[in-house]
Amino acid sequence: MDDRGARRPDAGMTQPATLAPVLSGLRVLEIGHFVAAPFCTRLLADLGADVVKIEPRGGDPVRQWGEMIDGRSLWWSMHGRNKRSVTVDLKSDKGRALILRLVAECDVVVENFRPGQLRKMGLGSEVLRGVRPDLIVAHVSGYGQDGPGANRAAFGVIGEAIGGLRYLTNQAPGTADLPPVRVGVSIGDSIAGLYAAFGVMAALWQRDRAGGDGRARTIDVALTESVLSMMEGMLPEYGALGKIKQPAGGGIATAAPTNAYPTADGQWVLIAANSEPLFAKLMTLVGHGELIGAPGYASNPERVANVDTLDQLIGAWTRTLSAGELVARLDASDIPNSKAYTAADCAADPQYRARGMVREVPDKHFGTVLQAGMVPHVPESPGTVRWAGPDLGEHTDEVLGELLGLAPAEIDALKQEGVL
């Protein structure tokens, strides 16, 4: 299935993109649900991997998430894209036997059950590697596969809390009595999925490269650890100084001026002018050139110490301009800035459109669906949206026939038994 703009070379490329997607030939079995493991495999599928997604007969719960049209999730159209959906009852002996036959045809298995759950089903790593000795197995869980907390229940929001992020997504202490806000998306799950995809590719590199060792490897990704790893200097500062990093609202505790500022038409514009040349440009625009090099404002540490006064001064100026006028003036002075984008702003952004990062994707149920493109861009061999999120079990017959050589009558019999 073609998608618009998928094979557009980046600006400056002089040769057409003719190479196959970079992960063509890689086959991944996903035994995942919700967000983390499926996000990992979607990244791999976007770059060309053949991802076979195993679902129970009721389907991945995410099929029922978000806004729906005629009972179908718009989110699923993107979340499940480029994957082949196969329904298998993992609780049945015949279902587990089919999984093992599929594993023998795959390079990687990605799963996000609670630790030990696959082993209880008779599908532990040692069993999987009995049919594919060099199999890469990626586990994504709340707390990791071992340790005293390994069996605790967790979702992405819990990983964000234990990783230190939820404490920081708040206004500065003393300025609000509401709970710390959620980032707004399943960021903990997605970060864990990214790390899992990175780990899978690192393991494949060592296994399959020229001179590689050909050995199996296990990737163990925890939601909590994935978030914690993003917390910049939080731990070093606490370890050395006993300092507990605090929420900073819309600003950055280590740089100023950098914040979101109000406009005359009720919007917010982010301005990042924390270097000396940028601060000088901004103060010239604001009409406070006397602060350039002045005591209290001559360096970034000085400006951080006076950030409240500085933000009030800048905010008083931004309130006199509409968002469009403010962005135009900042752009003219080459000061980093942006409106706080809504979905509509993202959809209309010419840079996103030019690079295929916002694209119309054909979907057999919706006609077309607006989706995000692929990251990373690989101009010489770009990934494509080959198809939108599939129907439940849409590829069961295709996969079992193609990979396992099952005849239609055999597949029908398994369906009648409730195995598929």
Automatic annotation (TrEMBL):
Pfam families noted in UniProt: CoA_transf_3 (PF02515)
Keyword Transferase among record annotations: yes
Molecular-function GO terms, alphabetical: CoA-transferase activity
Designated name of the protein: L-carnitine dehydratase/bile acid-inducible protein F
InterPro entries listed in its UniProt record: CoA-transferase_III_domain, CoA-Trfase_fam_III, CoA-Trfase_III_dom3_sf, CoA-Trfase_III_dom_1_sf
Gene3D superfamilies reported for this sequence: Crotonobetainyl-coa:carnitine coa-transferase, domain 1, formyl-coa transferase, domain 3
Keyword Repeat tagged: no
UniProt keyword terms in alphabetical order: Transferase
Origin species: Rhizorhabdus wittichii (strain DSM 6014 / CCUG 31198 / JCM 15750 / NBRC 105917 / EY 4224 / RW1)
Domain of life where this protein originates: Bacteria
